[in-house]
Here is the input.
Amino acid sequence: MEKVKFQIKLKKNLDFIIFGFTGSILLILSEFFYWFSNYTLLDRYVIATSVAIEDSFLYLFPFLSGIICLAASIIVVYDFKLRIKSVILSSVGIGFLLIFFIDFLSQESDYILSLGVGFYLFLTGFLLIVINVINILLTKEKESR
Amino acid sequence: MDSNENSNQNDSQDVEGSFYYALGHELRRKIIKIIGDNEFSSFTLLKKELGVSTGTIYHHLDTLSELIKQKKDKKYYLKELGVHAYNSLKDDIKLIREKGFAIREFKSPFLRRLMVITSIRFIQFKKEDRIYAILISIGILIIGTILSRLNQFYPLLLFFIEPNENNLELNFQILLILSFLLNFIIYFIIIEGISRLFYDKNENTLNFFISFAIVFFPMVLYLLLHYIFVYSGIFDISIINFLDKVLMIILQVWSLWLLSYSMSVKKGLKIETTLIVSLLLHYGGFTIILLTLI
Here is the structure.
């Protein structure tokens, strides 16, 4: 019985799972894939920390954002009534992405045309999270979730 | 014992079903309102008010058998459930017509806590508090202008840009100094325009304008904290730099919340709708910055 209930809940929340969970996981994964020729963002973070660059934390932002957005997606799947909390939490996650985007583009604009798969995972994840937030807000509670 | 409970449950489900079914048609809702408003109604009055055929009225009266009854005087009266339906209809309409009906969206403890930092008193100020609201707004705008000049950060919606002032002509430099104020006016015009054009909400414009500066309060707070970090020389420390960025993000989200809340309260829009508008505008601002960077 519990299994059936769980399956029904999964089906009802399929859109949030596809957009929210996939987007968050892509953001987390993007941290561990190559962005520059041989470096992942994690490598860049380690290098930047070792030479004491002040905004080395910037390279962790996609990962942090992924964690926050994943938590927000879990909240909305757990209980749709918590959607406003989920949206506010997602906005914090997206905020990290926007700051990262702006700082990254101004600092690393030379590499923009030769970016690796990590960047594209990040971009896809970012778009999925934005779509998820809009989808949550457009979905009416009365749709018996 | 179990069978009794089941039968009671089924009965209540039947009553609930007929209650909502009865309210599910406009004509039936009108019938209940006519009878409720007049305490009772004759068939002739119903026919006159509804303007539909006799057969249609009889059909709907049959459907409403759980909610209304016909007494010996041939008049129609509301039963207990009918009175409840009538009150419910009246309350719903009252709730929707109330200017502050969006408040019902904020029932959860989390959102109530958010409202504490949202300064409801400032956003929903009373007539006698209007002068204080104006003074607070002016204060926010003046402090914001000074701090953005000190930090050489200039606002674009809820973001900040750092243009190289040396390359700019004098006119543009003056515009930059006033950018906090200009940003406030442009942002207000965009929000008011969206409310009017897309949602047909023309009311409360002056009050909305007076309290709109509160949206920028978190930005002023950020500018102040950033200035303290830079002035005290600790900004170059990695963890402080990180803290500065986290503060900026959290305060931006706070600004977005204030914007959504004010729009919801002043324009009577649902909080979901106002959140969509404020988020889309925010991402629009981000896109402009991104394009200028590229």
Observations:
- The longest helix of chain B spans residues 238-267.
- Residues 102-293 of chain B form one domain.
- The longest strand of chain B covers residues 68-70.
- Residues 94-105 of chain B have pLDDT under 50 and may be disordered.
